[in-house]
Amino acid sequence: MHFSELGLHEALLSAVAREGYSTPTPIQQQAIPAVLGDQDLMAAAQTGTGKTAAFTLPILHKLATSSERRGKAPRVLILTPTRELAAQVSASVDTYGSDLKPRTAVIFGGVSPRPQIAAMRSGLDLLVATPGRLLDHAQQGNLDLSAVEVFVLDEADRMLDMGFVHDIKRVIKLLPQRRQNLLFSATFSDDIRTLARRLLNDPVEINVAPKNSTAETIAQSVVHVEKRRKRALLSWMIGTNNWQQVLVFTRTKHGANRLSKQLETDGLAAAAIHGNKSQNARTNALNGFKAGTVRVLVATDIAARGIDIDQLPHVINYELPNVAEDYVHRIGRTGRAGVEGEALSLIEGEEVKLLKGIERLIGRKIPVREVEGFDFNAPLPAAERDERGPRPQRPARNNASRGQPPKQRSQSRGGQAKSGDQPSGAKRRRRPRRQTTGGGQSR
User: Fold this and answer.
1) What pTM did the predictor assign?
2) Quick check: 57 and 32 in contact, CB under 8 A?
3) What CA–CA distance (Å, rounded) separates 38 from 29?
4) pLDDT digits (tens, 9 = 90+) for 357-395
5) Secondary structure class of 119 (helix, strand, coil)
6) From the CA atom positions of the chain, what is the Rg in Å?
């Protein structure tokens, strides 16, 4: 099938051709006719399947061919869970609608609301937003959603994971009852189906990929390595293999910051992206990564949602996610649109259980990669040598003059739980009759 067979506006076909696409993906083949036919849609599609174009193209077609008078209130609302995804969807609208010039805006938190207010007051056809900032503008009277004809809920599964279910319900109450609804999700969980029943009216259901499947274009592998040697191995592999664009995942924001600084010390241009970063910092880091001035982008799971980079070659799990499903989302940043990519996970002993859970989820065993040339027994830098080793012991004090043997006093100082930390149902340790001030005594 060719895009020209889907009945899209000529300006959209020209824009698609300029982007180098001629054949629609499976999700696009099924979703575009349904959207053009004014049907509600419930679509399951993994990252990298072309789902953003599956709804932006037909929506832009409807805006371009409609005879409705252009008012100030938006006719299309696209709700996304993260700032990065909102920016990505907005960029897709700008790319495909470049010849049609619809009035669009993207609003999210972390930036000044003034330009957003100005855009809404000047009039919009299409609005892309995150829930929090959208509701802020609605409550302040800056936004009228009474004219929305098409409502898109993108990455609904992540919306629920992030606790946005109540915000979604509040947004729905602001919309007119008669509208077209499009719901996109990576999975059709029970919670998603409950939400769909509330939102959708006799929807067309599309499922283009098995649940929790990973693309065949992604070469997955693991390397077993001590936790304290992970950073050295990562830097060595990037340098030795001359990898130029590497997306690295950590579990925590602090870990992302720390690893980014360490990689900079190793001579690799790196940046961290996570929820505590300002929007400008996140945008600059992502733009630098896309432009090639940032070689390694270190990200947390939520911040990485919406990172859409053509032909991203390498995704590295510096730490495995605690939730197995997040592994699928992480590695889905590579191997997109039929282009091959690599997903490598660095596994230390305590992560083996997490790895087995991931393998059960995706229904396959991930092969172990043999690394030749790296010295897994080399002396560690001083900063990492004692990362997991025993802490140096303080010199023993002579406590006899204070009425307590040294061993017993040590237990009192370090082994007794503070008030409020005692597990429920546990037996309390009887205190010695003579108790010194300090130690474990609560006052």
Assistant:
1) 0.62
2) yes
3) 16
4) 999 888 889 999 999 999 998 887 665 654 444 444 444
5) helix
6) 27
